[in-house]
């Protein structure tokens, strides 16, 4: 067209331009109009032309995948055990406290080390293309070693499956006749389904946000700050989560988490300047801070003594294992085929639609409980 300028550049020359997503393929030369850079950066045509640049099935790739699988086995078991131990310590504490109030310290540690690792990586990396991950691995090794040593200082407690007192034993068995029957009540099933979708959204977020930020031109420090700010937002909500859960209830907290994920992902769809991610992360207070405290508290309150660890393991496995696994894998396929923005929008719609049906489930559950109360009266 007359009066318009079209440019011929390689993708390496476009790396770091905010809003333009590239695949680090210098061989491909694109002709584009500057005004379309921020709009057409996730088109299916670009992804189709460069699909070979996404995954290289090398030995290093498979070894990394194997190490991640082994690592997540350990992480899942350790994280679930830690939550069970924390809840038992809180329950036996002579001072009134809550799970969220104690979990705050883990949040602070997560944020501080994320920021520290990002800064160290930038400091010891000579070029953006050759980023050195050694400081991150060293930091992880030091922190993990300290954690292992501290576990020996934890008090040793044992929970029997049922009390030896006949009267208490009868109270601990659920109305269905078996302690495990509590897992299949409408209340638990509804909450369980919410955990599954939140796990999918979390898997998408954790898998793709560093990738997306790098494509928008973010440096290692900003990627580290992203996790640090999430933790800083999460800290106060964790501290008062017990009070909020008592006021709103577990299901309302779950609904807020689903709505927050929907808003968050739609906002990421429109994100152009990577620094605005720090503002979008305000939604993290509901996406993880309030949600995770609700999930742990729900399992501890609903399960009869002796089955609390089992229910917490099931819910944690649904969130951290099945949910995040499906979310990360699905997000990867969508990201590869259609680009990052389409992936964010798709998962945002999923979260909002789930929130709608979850609200209907809450109303049905509330109506069912009200009818039961009327029948009893």
UniProtKB/TrEMBL annotation:
This is Major facilitator superfamily (MFS) profile domain-containing protein. The chain crosses the membrane at residues 54-75, 104-121, 133-154, 189-213, 248-269, 275-293, 314-338, 344-366. InterPro entries: MFS_assoc_dom, MFS_dom, MFS_MFSD6, MFS_trans_sf. GO terms for cellular component: membrane. One of its GO terms (molecular function) is transmembrane transporter activity. Residues 187-377 form the Major facilitator superfamily (MFS) profile domain. It is a multi-pass membrane protein. Its main location: membrane. It is found in: Membrane. PROSITE patterns: MFS (PS50850). It comes from the Eukaryota. Belongs to the major facilitator superfamily. MFSD6 family. Keywords: Membrane, Transmembrane, Transmembrane helix.
């Amino acid at each position: 067209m007359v009066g318009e300028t079209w440019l011929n550049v390689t993708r390496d020359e476009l790396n770091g331009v905010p809003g333009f997503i590239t695949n680090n393929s210098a061989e491909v030369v694109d002709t584009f109009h500057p005004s379309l850079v921020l709009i057409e950066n996730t088109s299916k045509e670009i992804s189709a032309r460069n699909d070979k640049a996404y995954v290289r099935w090398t030995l290093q790739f498979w070894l990394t995948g194997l190490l991640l699988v082994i690592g997540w086995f350990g992480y899942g078991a350790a994280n679930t055990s830690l939550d069970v131990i924390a809840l038992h310590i809180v329950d036996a504490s002579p001072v009134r406290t809550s799970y969220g109030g104690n979990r705050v310290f883990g949040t602070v540690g997560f944020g501080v080390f994320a920021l520290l690792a990002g800064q160290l990586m930038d400091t010891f990396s000579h070029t953006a293309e050759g980023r050195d991950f050694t400081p991150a691995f060293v930091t992880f090794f030091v922190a993990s070693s300290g954690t292992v040593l501290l576990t020996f200082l934890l008090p040793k407690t044992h929970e029997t499956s049922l009390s030896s007192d006949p009267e208490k034993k009868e109270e601990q068995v659920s109305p269905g006749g078996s302690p495990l029957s509590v897992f299949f009540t409408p209340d638990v099933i509804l909450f369980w389904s919410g955990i599954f979708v939140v796990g999918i959204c979390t898997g998408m977020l954790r898998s793709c946000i560093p990738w997306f930020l790098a494509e928008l031109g973010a440096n290692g420090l900003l990627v580290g700050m992203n996790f640090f700010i999430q933790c800083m937002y999460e800290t106060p909500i964790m501290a008062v989560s017990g009070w909020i859960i008592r006021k709103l209830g577990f299901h309302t907290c779950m609904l807020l988490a689903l709505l927050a994920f929907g808003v968050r992902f739609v906002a990421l769809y429109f994100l152009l300047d990577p620094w605005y991610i720090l503002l979008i992360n305000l939604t993290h207070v509901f996406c993880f801070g309030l949600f995770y405290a609700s999930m742990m508290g729900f399992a501890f309150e609903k399960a009869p003594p002796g089955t609390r660890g089992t229910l917490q393991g099931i819910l944690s496995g649904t969130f951290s294992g099945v949910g995040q696994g499906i979310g990360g894998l699905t997000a990867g396929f969508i990201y590869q085929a259609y680009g990052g923005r389409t992936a964010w929008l798709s998962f945002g719609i999923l979260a909002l639609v789930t929130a709608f049906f979850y609200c209907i489930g809450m109303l049905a559950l509330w109506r069912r409980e009200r009818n039961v109360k009327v029948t009893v009266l």
